[in-house]
Amino acid sequence: MLTETAKVKTIDFGNSWDLDPQTGLCHEADGTAHWMAPEAIRQKGQRLAYDTKCDIWSLGITAIEMAEGKPPYADEYPVEHLIREAQPPRLQSNNW
C-alpha cells in the first residue's frame, strides 16, 4: 500500500487489532503463525499483552521469506510451538 506521500507500507487488513489507548498494549491476536511474534501467540491460559514491536518481528519474517522463498519453519508443525520456544530465526542460505 502507498500512503498519501508515496511511502510504501506492508499491511494486512485481514487481521488487525487496536492497542489499548491507556496501556499501549494489545490483548487480542489472530493471524498466520509463521509471521506472528512469540508474544502474540496465545498459550493455554495465558493473557496476551504485546505492543507494536510485534510488527518489527513480522517485517523481519517477511524479509526472510522474500530472501529465501518461504518463511522460517514453513515445513514444521506445530509452528506455534517452535516460534514460542526456538531462537529467533535467521537467514539460512549460504548466499547471505
From TrEMBL:
Gene Ontology cellular-component terms listed: cytoplasm
The UniProt entry, under Gene3D superfamilies, shows:
Transferase(Phosphotransferase) domain 1 (1.10.510.10)
Which superkingdom, per the lineage? Eukaryota
Which InterPro entries is this protein grouped with?
Answer: Kinase-like_dom_sf, Prot_kinase_dom, STE20_Ser/Thr_kinase
What is one Gene Ontology biological process annotated in the Swiss-Prot or TrEMBL record?
Answer: regulation of MAPK cascade
Q: Where is the Protein kinase domain?
A: 1-96
What are the recorded GO MF terms, alphabetically?
ATP binding; protein serine/threonine kinase activity
Q: Could you identify this protein by its name?
A: Serine/threonine-protein kinase 4-like
Tell me what organism the protein belongs to. Answer: Xenopus laevis
Lineage of this protein's species? Eukaryota, Metazoa, Chordata, Craniata, Vertebrata
